[in-house]
Amino acid sequence: MQKKIAAINDLSGIGKCSLTVAIPIISALGVQCCPLPTAILSSQTGYPHFTFLDFTSEMKNYTDTWKKLNLSFDTIYSGFLGSIEQIDLVIEFISKNPDAFIVVDPVMGDEGQIYSVFSEKIIHEIKELVKLADLTTPNITEACLLTGRSGEYDTLTRKDIEDIAKQISDMGPSKVVITGIHEDNKKTITNFVYDKDANKKTFISKDYLKSSYSGTGDIFASIVSGMITGGFDFEFAVNTAVDFVTNAIEYTSNFDISRNDGVMFEYYLQDLTKLGAKVFERDKTLR
């Protein structure tokens, strides 16, 4: 059977983020992406104008219908959740899929600040969700929010980051990736990979390209989720995601493109499709 991911996030018609990137990326990796929208937007919220349709009232009907169809998922991957009610619905959905691998991207903030759409109460609720995860992918700001270090995100040593990852892992997830760590006076950008079960920890650094675009965190988490579901090694999946995002940012930065538009990731999907083909060939031999 083809592996399936239930991807829980918002859907924006314009602006390459959330489900708009998760669906093609996970599909390219040979895994079926089953979207569960939390909201539908004409354009992502970084634009000066957008429409917003809250899908909270339909989420339970949506997942209950999946249950009636006897659907099961190999992975449940959650991203931006706009309210405590949505977090509770995702927790309930996870409880009804006890065999799924759980990926939580705890979207709460960036650059040392919690997003303006959230109150401090959201941090406690996101922690409850992270406790259920097998893998979580916070950026450095979100990692600090999860561990009560919100004022320290740009002054941390590598030892501090290791301690933060272990503290997050102790909440529940055996695998933690902390992204977007600036080092060497912002000359490099680093991701820290921690795998408690394998007793492995790795820093992965790239030159900082001084370009920032919407949706790169969603791209990263979607690649890692899709590759783990497809049976790839965790560290290899993270390295693949880092390279993919770096290449897409570097190419996009050659053009006069708004950060709200996101990166031109479509030109690099062929790299993921090659990995998806390996999954197909492996699964074909198992049938």
UniProtKB/TrEMBL annotation:
Leader sequence range is: none
Using the UniProt record, name the top-level EC class of this enzyme in a single word. Answer: transferase
Organism of origin is: Peptacetobacter hiranonis (strain DSM 13275 / JCM 10541 / KCTC 15199 / TO-931)
Q: What is its EC number?
A: 2.7.1.35
Q: Choose one Gene Ontology CC annotation of this protein and give it.
A: cytosol
What is this protein's name? pyridoxal kinase
Listed GO biological process terms: pyridoxal 5'-phosphate salvage; thiamine biosynthetic process
What would you give as a GO molecular function for this chain, any one? pyridoxal kinase activity
Gene3D superfamilies hit by this protein: 3.40.1190.20
- Output the lineage of the source organism: Bacteria, Bacillati, Bacillota, Clostridia, Peptostreptococcales
Question: What keywords is this UniProt entry annotated with?
Answer: ATP-binding, Kinase, Nucleotide-binding, Thiamine biosynthesis, Transferase
The record, for PANTHER family, names: HYDROXYMETHYLPYRIMIDINE_PHOSPHOMETHYLPYRIMIDINE KINASE THI20-RELATED, PHOSPHOMETHYLPYRIMIDINE KINASE
